[in-house]
Amino acid sequence: MKKFMPIFGWARGYDRRVFASDLLAGIVVTIMLIPQSLAYALLAGLPPEMGLYASILPLVAYALFGTSRTLSVGPVAVASLMTASAIGRIAEPGSLGYIEAATLLALMSGLFLLVMGILRMGFLANFLSHPVIAGFITASGIIIAFSQLKHLLGVSASGENLLHLIASLGGQLNTANPSTLMIALPTLVFLFWVRSGLKPLLVRTGLSDHAAGMLSKTGPVLGVIATSAFAFSFDLGAKGVALVGQVPVGLPTLALPALAHPAWKELWIAAIFISIIGFVESVSVGHTLAAKRRQKILPDQELIGLGAANISSAVSGGYPVTGGFARSMVNFDAGAVTPAAGIFTAAGIAAAAVFFTPYLAYLPQATLAATIIVAVLSLVDFSILKKTWQYARSDFVAVAATLAITLMFGVETGVACGVLTSLGLHLYKTSRPHLAIVGEVPGTEHFRNIKRHQVITYDDILSLRVDESLYFANASYFEDSLYSLLETRPDVKHVVLLCTAVNEIDLSALEVLESINARLRESGMQLHLSEVKGPVMDMLEKTHFLAQLGGQVFLSQHQAIESIRAMAERGPRNAPQTIDGSAPSHTRPVK
Amino acid sequence: MKKFMPIFGWARGYDRRVFASDLLAGIVVTIMLIPQSLAYALLAGLPPEMGLYASILPLVAYALFGTSRTLSVGPVAVASLMTASAIGRIAEPGSLGYIEAATLLALMSGLFLLVMGILRMGFLANFLSHPVIAGFITASGIIIAFSQLKHLLGVSASGENLLHLIASLGGQLNTANPSTLMIALPTLVFLFWVRSGLKPLLVRTGLSDHAAGMLSKTGPVLGVIATSAFAFSFDLGAKGVALVGQVPVGLPTLALPALAHPAWKELWIAAIFISIIGFVESVSVGHTLAAKRRQKILPDQELIGLGAANISSAVSGGYPVTGGFARSMVNFDAGAVTPAAGIFTAAGIAAAAVFFTPYLAYLPQATLAATIIVAVLSLVDFSILKKTWQYARSDFVAVAATLAITLMFGVETGVACGVLTSLGLHLYKTSRPHLAIVGEVPGTEHFRNIKRHQVITYDDILSLRVDESLYFANASYFEDSLYSLLETRPDVKHVVLLCTAVNEIDLSALEVLESINARLRESGMQLHLSEVKGPVMDMLEKTHFLAQLGGQVFLSQHQAIESIRAMAERGPRNAPQTIDGSAPSHTRPVK
């Protein structure tokens, strides 16, 4: 029971001290979440109340089923962008079909996450490498910021990728609304200042560092109040400034999404992408927070928690949700101890939906757009390009490809190409394994690359370390490389493969080894193996390979060399050909 | 020059003895190739002369550019089936558009092979594993055999996969033509007998084993002559038996294929599949033959050779060709020494096109169908299922998936799914690496799995061997596994990662190692690395990881343990915590 509903784990020890902590965190997150929820709904092209609805039941569902103590679930920037991009293809923004498609998408995403969790498929998220995620998030941040410029300018523009957005905006610049700009620019400046300037100011008034940090997170609400009051006082609506307008008062009504919606066939790929990206984002935040308090999250149970959250969102008029980075950090810093903080936040947002929605009518959309821009620009981080360039070209290629393709062709194509690029590069690397000729480090039983270390070698023994599992993609390459090496070493009578890095030999590779063994035997050479791992040996023992092997399988490379040299000195016995008992031929210099 | 046209390599030492050998092989292959060329054209749904045309210029082109001395190029069963399947989607068999599409496909395939060769992309073929090829070839053999049954029965049926073929045939059984069956069944029995019974008979007449073997390969020609004579004598054409009919006499006219053909957009995927499958088939035959005479083939130059062959086929009214297994074996066994044998074969087929085509008018199609069935049934080999089941489940899954999907959905889908399955299984395995806790084998400096060997371990040192490169797909799994291991080992103060199998640490994995290092350090433990390979160490040295590392990097695991134990006995110096200098705690039994 505790396994499927982690609430039974933490609810037992719940006391007044924890309650107070959670309540404070719940209040802070509520104040932060109100403008964010409205803004992300705008980003998704949905009515603002859907942002609030997506921040009530989903938080409760996650609190019941999720394993992170402090993750805060709700609408997030990237999932909102992906929602807009997916449903924008099949319905007109603002239409009933569009809204229905958004709740349907949440349901499909929830069911997909749930099934993945039940099948314990959380490991699939590991195939999204860090460079791909970093490239994708940065590109998404840029696209989102550009997509909101139209609200600051008071024009209409659209586009799923950067090129379309810029072209669309460029054609509209001359129709920009001066009143909208007049309210948008000061708000943007204020919100940027809040991020860095408000906290020091509060500290100077005598607040503690922590309290000032918390209070500064509620800054955006000041922007909402001030711009709403301004718009009301000067009747900006009549001057062409887009306002939020009438928002339904009260809690969402519970209802199943339109399952018969004709769009579900077109939405399922988008649902999978949103689910996986949301899951990866959420799990990475969850891991980070859990590590700070020596807690653990269980990815497969997280799938169930996020699945439940999305299904709750769907039945309560919301849209796809996931764990957000910024709000989870605030929740954590504000002192949240258990998921009860999330339940308090849900209660806070519910109260807002009931009591504050009438006041949203005069809120300018430009204020929400400014909130989004300030939030997403913190996602944009090009340092990963420099970091990967310095560390590994393949990681750099993965980042650059994901970044460029996401900007040019949109989020789904970007992620898909990023994953394929990183997997392709990995497979390419393993298809051309590094091979090192090794010799014994003097005074040890340890063997190292002759090009890097001063080691002892013998002319009649080729000690070859294969730096990769042998499988179909590299078996031929390995065979060709070995023969090329032997062509330049006519004195070799024994080839010893040091198998420390060979974690697998598949059937294709086994056949190549059989052919190598036969060819060496015909040429009067012996093939030996050393340091073969248990699991690989288990497999070889099921075949005839060991019986046909010209040489032997040695426990260690040291024993292989000792034994081959001893045999050479005794004269041939097992070996079909004579071996000259030459002394160590040379000690190679370090390159 | 020799590199791009290998003919300059072998033509220099050409003498009368080699000429005699090559000429004999050329004659034997010609006699074998005449019925095969006609039959494979029938299989591709093309007029019989196209099979002959595809066996003239392509052989000359391959002789000039290919690297195999004895490979015999021409129409083959699988490529013919794939051609039929690709162009059958866009044109009616027998129509002018169908024929034009076939030559266009040869041109596209030729250009693709040529470009791959120039870009040296031959390595891509390595991603087709042996199980995938075996499953695909067996399934193709079954589909081809079923596709020819209609000719034996004298009915019309069609279908790209087994299910369609069986359904289509089933509906036609009642319309079977008795005269066709009367000629088809004896021919089929005769051809099967020729494969196994003719050679022993010839040996008994006093022929040498080799001569009998060669002569028996010409058996199918007897079937062609006998059934043609029979059809002529009894006027079977009037009794509803499908005959080959009028075949144009003479050599093909040279002409560029219809480049403006509207179908090229629909053909390019098929062209890629045919090229890659043909290349893999050809290279594997080429490797096998070259190995027998200690020769070498160069896969990238083979791409150029096959590309040239297909382009020649396209401009001389042929269709896609590649190196065939059966005819290359016959060529080799008949004594071919150089590619000149292929040129003699081409001359032989050209002579046949000029002088023998009038006699083909009465040849029953059923004879050709029987030729195909007998040829392809030798491709069908289910033993790979048993072999892979015994050796490795992942190889079995790859074979079974390729076999089943090819039978059910056709050749292209089958190969694509097979490749994706085998790559997916490989990635899945590497995403869950084997981790072994190791200890020192007494009396050596060698470390082995505590579960398999009697080894020395210490309670305060966890020696962990990671049996895989660390990369994005397995970094989290490794992290979780390590923490789980540590939970059950509270006395551990030192974690030594034995990195013999770690061929790469990508950025995602580096970040995981940094987080592990930080967490162990916070818990009063030290992370050490040992036996880090040169290329991996080069990468780590570019980062801050080594500076932050709580422990050290040791040359060998033996030195790591010695050094940590020495430090423990001296008391803490580098280490932030005390270590009790306990004696070896236990020697583990072999499991």
UniProtKB/TrEMBL annotation, chains A, B:
Gene Ontology CC annotation, any one: membrane
Superkingdom of origin organism: Bacteria
Coiled-coil parts of chain: none
Region (Disordered): 568-591
InterPro entries xrefs: SLC26A/SulP_dom (IPR011547), SLC26A/SulP_fam (IPR001902), STAS_dom (IPR002645), STAS_dom_sf (IPR036513)
Domain STAS per the UniProt entry, residue ranges: 451-564
Subcellular locations according to the entry: Membrane
NCBIfam families listed in its UniProt record: sulP (TIGR00815)
Protein name: Sulfate permease
Organism for this UniProt entry: Kineobactrum salinum
Primary gene name: sulP
